[in-house]
Specification:
The chain has 229 residues and is mainly alpha-helical. The chain is 40% helix and 0% strand.
């Protein structure tokens, strides 16, 4: 059998093939680094916000209920970012000018300059979003909160965070695992926003969650159509 020989015209393809191969490898490596970054995997993602809002002070030290700012969390599919008017309930400098200076918190603080500007000019503060699901995944916030899934289950102990960060991947595998075994993340609904809640003495979180699920017929669906509609 004669040895196979490539025709001479193939030689002109060698350099372009090497270049394209190198570009492909570079692109693949860049995409691997990009998709594995905290900003995309989200775990550990902690962006600087335009206003340095401290959950540790507001939710932790002052014990503000999560629903004071995120008021639609238990009633709507999406938990909204609070309007600046909510901030203005405590930090509106105009209230101080009107004679209520004793009930206004830090009306002259430079850290709240954007809040005052937003209130005066009816513009939005451009907060950096931390928890964001892909558009192809359906998620109903109220369906979880109303069944006893605590804020802690997805967002962690935000009452201990000076700057909020992403603590859960919120990817498909993570969600499916919770739907298959939700009991650790379930509790009576009156404790959903009590971030430091502990189960009654002599019971584990799983035991409390399992009893709550049985009493309220909670059996999360693991069918693909639950999230991909």
């Amino acid at each position: 059998m004669d040895r196979f020989r490539f025709p001479a015209w193939v030689n002109v393809l060698i350099v372009p093939s090497v270049v394209l191969g190198g570009l492909g490898a570079t692109y693949t490596a860049a995409m691997a680094v990009y998709t594995a970054s905290p900003e995309n995997l989200k775990v550990g993602y902690k962006p600087d916000q335009p206003v340095p809002f401290s959950h540790k002070i507001h939710a932790g030290q002052l014990k503000l209920d999560c629903r004071y700012c995120h008021s639609s969390a238990e009633y709507a599919a999406h938990s909204q970012i609070p309007a600046t008017a909510t901030c203005g309930n405590c930090h509106n400098a105009e209230q101080a000018d009107g004679g209520n200076k004793y009930v206004v918190v830090h009306p002259e603080s430079e850290r709240l300059a954007l809040v005052r500007d937003s209130l005066e000019n009816d513009t939005a503060v451009e907060w950096a979003r931390i928890h964001d699901l892909p558009d192809y995944a359906y998620f109903n916030h109220s369906a979880h909160v109303a069944r006893g899934v605590s804020c802690v289950a997805c967002h962690g102990r935000v009452d201990q965070m000076e700057v909020v960060e992403r603590v859960s991947p919120l990817n498909m595998g993570w969600c499916v695992n919770c739907h298959r075994n939700p009991y650790e993340n379930l509790r009576p609904t009156e404790f959903v926003t009590q971030l430091d809640w502990e189960p009654p003495e002599g019971m584990t979180r799983e035991e409390v969650g399992r009893a709550w699920a049985e009493a309220n017929d909670i059996n999360p669906n693991t069918n693909c159509s639950t999230c991909h509609r």
